[in-house]
Amino acid sequence: MQLDRVAKRFDQTLAVDDLSFAVREGETFGFLGGNGAGKTTSLRMVLDIIRPTSGSITVLGRAPGRENAPLIGFLPEERGLYRQMTALDTIVYFGRLKGMTPGDAKREGLGLLERFGLAGNARSTIDKLSKGMAQKVQLAAAVVNRPRLLLLDEPFSGLDPVNQTLLEDEIRRATADGATVVFSTHVMQHAERLCDRLLFLAKGRKRFEGTIDEARDSLPARLTLLSRQSPAGLAGVASARRVGEAKDGWGEWEVQMKAGASAGDLLERCIAEGFPLRRCEQQRAGLHDVFIHLVGPAEARS
Known about the structure:
By secondary structure, the protein is of the alpha/beta class. The chain contains ten helices and 13 strands.
């Protein structure tokens, strides 16, 4: 899946602005941004629900279109099922829309209901199910065709912790079976646990694309040192703050490195200068902190 300089304008609003990125086959790709960042609009263009104003999109080696439906699964942010349809019939219906035969859709649907703990509710209508049960049916409808490309728009929104775990397991199952998974979210914890790579989006523009480690590396390294003297004068150190005392003159220091300087650079400098150092621990930045750093506080709050 690839977007090349894609833009989408609604009247005077530029929802997606010169967006280019590529998703590799078989990876889990996180699409991160606040409300109004352009995530849903981008996914809808991939699905050919709406057309881009400019630019090009490639999905599974060809242009977006109805012919891609048998190979794609989609879980929309706006969940909606036919309330008078049974759980099994709902899954079969969506399977048929994706080109499955009635028998294959039913067989796969029954297997999914069993896996999701809903085997006893196969003949229950959606309006008789709890919200959590209905969400499982919606997920089953998205994966019934064992898609090669699974698109999930804010899939964790409104899910209780049990169903969040179920969804994470299904994402891992899909990639283990060879599927490519793209999901949008504003919840960083899910991206940290699941993504091979991710993209930060703000006001329709790409702010970052790469691995989680590459995202974290965009922030200056933060370290905790146990040393006999202040490390503030060492090359590459932006700031050093004493935070604790230890025995025999050793002290604990919180250190922030300058942009581009690493913990390894600091250790090499300590050895070269004979700087007394007993411990050096790097504090890994959380993805939320990285997101704020790259897109700005205002966009992170949106």
